[in-house]
Design a protein that fits this description.
With 117 residues, this protein is mainly α. The protein has 5 helices and 3 strands; from the N terminus they run βααβααβα. It has one domain. α2 packs across α3 and α3 runs parallel beside α5.
Length: 117
């Protein structure tokens, strides 16, 4: 299949919140692990529509989007090629997601590439 659109408040939770811990029903980790990462593995392109909710926390966004690189094994190139996202009212939200992804990419370049004795 080629493309998938995820409407976050319909396909995941109407009030997404928080980073985790595991098992928290509306966390960024759960969204990433159960919805977003599997879609990115299955489809050539995934669009996340964040419209309809205006109180996304930075921790949710960091875990959901930055965590794709830190925790789910995607590269920055994968994310830039396969993922898009939008919100009908809050362009500032898009800037926060961009920042969290870029920070995760930078962190992945800084990580040691081999074990340090």
């Amino acid at each position: 299949m080629h493309e998938k659109t995820i409407v976050l408040i319909k396909d995941f939770d109407p009030r997404p919140y928080g980073r985790g811990p595991e098992g928290e029903e509306s966390s960024g980790q759960k969204f990433r692990d159960e919805v977003l990462a599997p879609a990115l593995r299955e489809y050539e392109h995934v669009h996340v529509d964040l419209s309809g909710y205006n109180r996304y926390g930075r921790s949710f966004l960091d875990e959901a989007f930055g965590g794709l690189i830190r925790e789910s094994g995607f590269s920055g190139e994968d994310i830039h090629e396969k993922l898009s996202y939008s919100h009908d009212l809050l362009q500032s939200l898009i800037a926060v997601i961009d920042q969290r992804i870029e920070a995760a990419i930078e962190d992945s370049y800084d990580a040691p590439k081999f074990p340090i004795p």
